[in-house]
């Protein structure tokens, strides 16, 4: 019985510990794919700010109403630009050959990025753009150095600059600061919420059934606990005669 308890404890306690192991100084995205209003905001932000360049070709429009808790008409009038049919996948407005010419790298498809890179990585990436002091570089990013993606949300966040520290004779970015005369329309907490909503939507896209899976997990664990209790009682009943 003790060993069984130990195993059950491991099942409960271990997952958060494993999850915390991802990435050294990444920010904590704390996404919640069951939060439909966050997903709605995230989808809208994604459509307005990201789909010009990025596609999400493994995600179909008609998967959204259920997850976001809104009607297909809402999706059509708020998120879709141009002509489409509901079974279509989410395409970029820009052709990827053109994008590669303009930005030096083709904007990758973002359907699975939240899983491939990790949610914390995506969230930290969106919070790590800065204006490089070397004007020939322009926008830079501490998570993806020399990233060819511009800081598309700069109007909201403002224009962060890097403060450097010297390590082994090499200057390294120590922190990013938005100077007072370069502020955006949002304060720091509001910008973090915006980027968390986008990351949440990307987490949903990377695993559309995740909210259902988590909900089902609770039932499965509940069933296992009850079943373990019953099995234990039954064992006691059987062994009573033997002893
Ligand atoms: C103007 C075009 C453009 C827009 C708009 C844009 N991106 Fe990008 N994005 C790029 C390019 C180009 C890259 C490739 C960067 C590289 O590899 O240097 C990229 C890379 C990324 C990556 C890294 C993917 C990886 O695995 O390396 C993420 C994440 C990302 N973009 C998210 C977003 C999000 C979220 C938005 C909307 C808020 C957005 N992008 C808007 C052009 C764009």
UniProtKB/TrEMBL annotation:
Cofactor(s) of this protein: heme c
Signal peptide per UniProt: 1-19
Localization terms from the record: Membrane
A Pfam family: Cytochrom_C1
PROSITE patterns: CYTC
Molecular function GO terms recorded: electron transfer activity; heme binding; metal ion binding
Database matches in Gene3D superfamilies: Cytochrome c-like domain, Cytochrome c1, transmembrane anchor, C-terminal
All residue ranges annotated as the Cytochrome c domain in the record: 37-130
UniProt cofactor note: Binds 1 heme c group covalently per subunit.
The keyword Membrane is assigned to this record: yes
Coiled coil residues, start to end: none
Keyword Aminoacyl-tRNA synthetase: no
Binding-site positions, heme c: 50, 53-54
Transmembrane segment boundaries: 216-234
Gene Ontology cellular-component terms listed: membrane
Keywords: Heme, Iron, Membrane, Metal-binding, Signal, Transmembrane, Transmembrane helix
PANTHER family: CYTOCHROME C1, CYTOCHROME C1, HEME PROTEIN, MITOCHONDRIAL
Protein's name according to its UniProt entry: Ubiquinol-cytochrome c reductase cytochrome c1 subunit
